[in-house]
Amino acid sequence: MKRPVFLTARAQPIPRWLEAFPDARMLPDAGADTDFAALAEASVVWLHMTTEHTDVTTHVQSVRRAAGSVPVVVLSNVPEDEQGLAALSAGASGYCSALTLPAVLRQVAGVVEHGGVWVGPQLMQRLMRGLASRTGTAPASTLDSLSQRERQVAEAVARGATNKEIARVMAITERTVKAHLSAAYEKLGVRDRMQLALIVNGVENPTPTLLKIPA
Questions:
Q1: Which CATH number is 59's domain given?
Q2: Which residues, other chains included, contact 53 with Cβ-Cβ below 8 Å and sequence gap of 6+?
Q3: What is the spatial distance between Cα 170 and Cα 177, in angstroms, rounded to a whole number?
């Protein structure tokens, strides 16, 4: 049975990791001498990044190649947007703090194991706004299945707006925003805000639903 693998240079794992995944395997991050073969047998690879990892892109790419189809989540001692963007660009499926609470770590695992992407709200907004600055837009027919309200919410999300901001501008409740967003996910066959933004901004075509992530 596959189990989580934490790739870390720490002598001892952070207690929260084992609290989240008692059966997890700890694998020493020994650079070129790391046993990368074990990563392909994991359920999720949790790559612990410290301040000593200056070349984030190269390190994530090497782990990503060794992991094959297994999702890689970067755990950072000092999370910051630039490192997160570099990790995601290099192929990571998620980026969060090394001190993330156990319940949230389990939630992250559930998302990435089903093909989703996990990042913090600030980095997510930055990624969305970067997509929105592109000149491309989705073909009109792509969004035809959405109601007017669902489309307004989807387009606002694709610009990087939060549910609270959308609710304020549209004069509706956050609960209603979530309902419209969930309906848009289902109709477009997407998993999360990131994939919705890719579709709305004309970067990616709709794909089959793998997991319905709460709005």
A1: 3.40.50.2300
A2: 59
A3: 9
pLDDT, one tens digit per residue, over 80-89 is: 878 888 888 8
CB 100 within 8 A of CB 77: no
Q: What is the pTM of this model?
A: 0.65
Rounding to the nearest 10 degrees, give the CA dihedral for residues 132, 138, 144, 149: 0
pLDDT, tens digit, 9 for 90 and up, residues 5-21 = 999 999 899 999 999 99
Report the number of distinct structural domains present in the chain.
2
**Amino acid letter for position 122:** Q
Buried b (16+ CB within 10 A) or exposed e, 25-35: ebbebeeeebe
Give Cα separations from 63 to 38, 45, 123 (angstroms).
11, 9, 22
Judge whether 16 lies within some domain: yes
Q: Over the chain, what is the mean pLDDT?
A: 83
